[in-house]
What we know:
This protein has about 230 residues and is of the alpha+beta class. The protein has helices at about 85-90, 110-120, 120-145, 150-165, 180-185, 190-205, 220-225; strands at about 15, 30-35, 40, 50-55, 60-65, 70-75, 80, 95-100, 100-110, 165-170, 170-175, 205-210, 215. The chain is globular.
Amino acid sequence: MIDGTDDLHHYSPWIRFKDIKWDEPNLASYLRSFKPNEIIYHQQQYDDYVYLVKEGRIRICIYSVEGNEQCLTIAEEGSVFGELSAIDGLPNFGTAISLTNSNVYVVPKPFFLELIFFNDGMTMKILQSLVKKVRVLSSNIQNLTFKDSYSRVITYLVKLAHSHGSFDGSRCELNMKFTHQEMANLTGLNRVTVSNIMSSLTTMGLISKADGYMVIEDINKLNDLK
């Protein structure tokens, strides 16, 4: 682990809740499969459901009028999305797109609201989920506002290491593959810029690849470059 990092540093946009034990959805919900790049709902669309990820990865993103994309979070196992629309009655703020083959519980909004109104345990789980998202989005704003392109990429690599990595001292092997375009969507950069930064970090001996997975050779040295 890295010494001297702030709390927000550890809130990765790749959100999963393996430590929160969601109750098995009952007959009011059903399991639906989504293919890679399949859209679940669109930005500013009213939807009748809330979604709970059983397995896979779902990108939550927003688009400008010109079509530019900014990724907000990536919902993984145990993560809920679409709940804000159920609570405030407004359209979904962003677009939800499946990044991988994903299985997702589809929960009707009335049943979801009944759960959080009458089930204290479920209410606390939803609050925990919302609090984590607020911290993640606050961290994202901090990165996009105050950091240059190099620091943004390094920050997200370190976050990814803490959420999807196996450490051996300061060396970390990531257990999840990602593309330069995915990193670009998170950092507000273009793919070419991200690729150039990754190439530079590789030349410096700070990152490498093993069987298609990224390896951070020394996370402390990488973090010092931010």
